[in-house]
């Protein structure tokens, strides 16, 4: 079972996959920090985690048989609790409708105050990370909405600018038509008056001809 499978196994018990992942991360982080600090983390019925110092020593390379000096170092160590050992060996059966490791009474952790403080700090960090991720998602969504609003506004302005010349052109055409209508009756009236002048000219010519004959 890997970490992802562990999260899936406890997701239904803690209210969801995300809550399970946060819980697993918080527990593992708390254990690692406590052991690195030199504290011993003990869980009744499960086991204990602690830091062990190994002095400098000589060892042999298994391939060449050469003697090699190993520097002083520190390593983590886990010791299984008696209840865990009994379940693995088969001397006790796993409960069907209960947890394998029973809830320990208050104060059963022997890691001391620093270990408990580390657990609380890890839980707070996990909660803070989740809150920060949510805030970042909200900020990104808000920025996307603002950008979309700006683009829509710019498109509306461009459309309005294109529509304005068209309106002006329509108004100019209407004005030209009105002017043409006003001019047309005046021309017709002038055309109608022209025959009257011709009639007057004919009368004058007739009179002159009659005068000559006399």
Gyration radius, to the nearest Å? Answer: 50 Å
- Range of helix content: 55-70%
Give the SSE order as H and E letters.
Answer: HHEEEEEHH
Name the structural class.
alpha+beta
Overall outline: rod-shaped
End-to-end gap: 145 Å
Number of helices: 4
Main pleated-sheet profile: 3 strands, antiparallel
The average pLDDT is 76
* Largest sheet, spatial ordering of strands: 1-2-5
Strand content: 5-15%
Low-confidence stretches: 111-115
Number of strands: 5
Topology:
Layout: H1 3-14, H2 17-36, E1 41-43, E2 47-54, E3 57-60, E4 67-70, E5 73-80, H3 82-89, H4 113-213
Helix pairs in contact: 1-2, 2-4
Structural overview:
The chain is an alpha+beta fold. The chain contains four helices and five strands, in the order H-H-E-E-E-E-E-H-H. The strands form two sheets. A three-stranded antiparallel β-sheet has the order 1-2-5. It has a two-stranded antiparallel ribbon with strand order 3-4. Strand 1 (41-43) and strand 2 (47-54) form a beta hairpin. Helix 1 (3-14) crosses helix 2. The protein is rod-shaped, with a radius of gyration of 50 Å. Mean pLDDT is 76; it is low at 111-115.
């Amino acid at each position: 079972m890997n970490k992802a499978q562990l999260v899936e196994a406890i997701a239904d018990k803690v209210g969801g996959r995300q809550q399970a992942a946060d819980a697993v991360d918080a527990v593992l982080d708390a254990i690692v920090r406590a052991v690195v600090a030199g504290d011993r983390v003990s869980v009744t019925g499960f086991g204990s985690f602690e830091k062990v110092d190994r002095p400098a020593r000589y060892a042999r390379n298994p391939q060449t048989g050469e003697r090699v000096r190993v520097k002083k170092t520190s390593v983590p160590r886990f010791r299984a609790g008696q209840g865990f050992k009994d379940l693995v060996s088969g001397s006790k059966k796993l409960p069907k409708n209960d947890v394998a490791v029973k809830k320990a009474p208050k104060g059963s952790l022997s890691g001391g105050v620093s270990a408990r403080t580390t657990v609380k700090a890890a839980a707070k960090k996990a909660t803070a990370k989740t809150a920060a991720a949510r805030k970042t998602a909200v900020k990104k969504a808000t920025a996307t909405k603002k950008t979309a609003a700006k683009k829509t506004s710019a498109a509306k302005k461009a459309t309005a600018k294109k529509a304005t010349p068209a309106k002006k052109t329509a108004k100019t055409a209407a004005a030209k038509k009105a002017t043409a209508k006003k001019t047309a009756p005046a021309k017709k009236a002038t055309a109608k008056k022209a025959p009257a002048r011709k009639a007057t000219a004919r009368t004058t010519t007739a009179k002159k001809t009659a005068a000559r004959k006399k």
